Amino acid sequence: MPVIEVTDLHKSYGGRAVVDGVSFGVEEGEIFGILGPNGAGKTTTVECVEGLRVPDAGRVRVAGLDPVADHEKVARVLGAQLQESELQAKLTVREALELYAAFHPRPLDWRPLAERLGLAEKLGSRFGKLSGGQKQRLFIALALVGNPRVVVLDELTTGLDPRARRGTWELIEDVRAGGVTVLLVTHFMEEAQRLCDRIAVIDRGAVVALDTPAGLVRRSAGATVISFTPSAPLDDDEVGALPDLVSVERKDGRITLSGTDGTVNAVITLLARHRITAHQLRVLDATLDDAFLDLTKEKKEKTEGTLT
Ligand SMILES: Nc1ncnc2c1ncn2[C@@H]1O[C@H](COP(=O)(O)OP(=O)(O)OP(=O)(O)O)[C@@H](O)[C@H]1O
């Protein structure tokens, strides 16, 4: 049974549906990502999972519990990243960690957690005096200190420098290795690709795709791009007839085609048949970025610059 179940969730603000029939299930021990453009309804969805918002319709369960009706029980199994307004400016880092540990029956030892998140030097500092990245790291520590069964991380590493970001990814991988289920909202494709077992892409309040990161990339319309400068002109009709062709661009004698592996093989066969040499040949696989842009219907841009 999934540890998080969201079924046909609906939520409107002022008559405008921002979550419009979202369903997904997260298995125990999974890292499940939610990706989507700004305003897609991701935070609203996870806040319904956390019991911070009351759904208009639909069903949400965390470890079999209703996050609204069983809020206190859910709070014992679920750790969530706080919003800045939820912590008093005068609280020190140590006090915040001790306070949040005290809320839970079997908390983690907060000292190694603070050390791991680079907060050991800041234990005596007041929350209001921390930098944005230090606050963010404290929020991650507070989400984990209760030793939760499920942790919800909304924009986990936003505002962190690259070293802190990588350290946080390793921490989350270790947390998962300990059996914790992670629900992660992110805008960083590298983060989603590295951490997530499965990803739901939400656009305009609805799940438009749910798959593994590799599965999402495979669905991308122009999953493979081949670019080259032919030694002699290529016939338009023959290019247009290539299998699985998604787009063709010609610029300054260079041709860029997107399609599948089949398109690439057919181009190579076509070139060989006409004894045309492909100068500066480049073949690129699509990334999660490409899949995201395709799935959320934004204009995909594969420029010459990215290929050379
Ligand atoms: N309390 C509220 N009252 C009115 N509208 C709201 C409220 N909270 C969110 N919204 C609106 O609902 C929509 C979805 O917001 P939500 O925060 O869920 O999106 P998101 O996908 O998390 O976006 P982002 O990536 O920008 O954080 C947005 O248009 C937002 O302005």
Mean pLDDT: 90
Order of helices and strands: EEEHEHEHHHEHEHEEHEHEEHEH
> End-to-end span in angstroms?
48 Å
CATH superfamily of the largest domain: P-loop containing nucleotide triphosphate hydrolases
Q: Helix/strand/pairing class, anyone?
A: alpha/beta
CATH topology type of the largest domain: Rossmann fold
Please give the oligomerization state of what you see: single chain
Determine and state the CATH class of the largest domain: Alpha Beta
Ligand catalogue = adenosine-5'-triphosphate
Which regions are unreliable across 5 or more consecutive residues at pLDDT < 50?
A: 299-308
Topology:
Layout: E1 4-13, E2 16-26, E3 31-35, H1 42-50, E4 57-62, H2 71-77, E5 78-80, H3 93-102, H4 110-116, H5 132-144, E6 150-154, H6 162-177, E7 181-185, H7 189-195, E8 198-203, E9 206-211, H8 213-219, E10 224-230, H9 236-240, E11 247-251, E12 254-259, H10 261-273, E13 278-285, H11 288-295
Parallel strand pairs: 3-7, 3-8, 5-6, 6-7
Antiparallel strand pairs: 1-2, 1-4, 8-9, 10-12, 10-13, 11-12
The protein binds adenosine-5'-triphosphate (ATP).
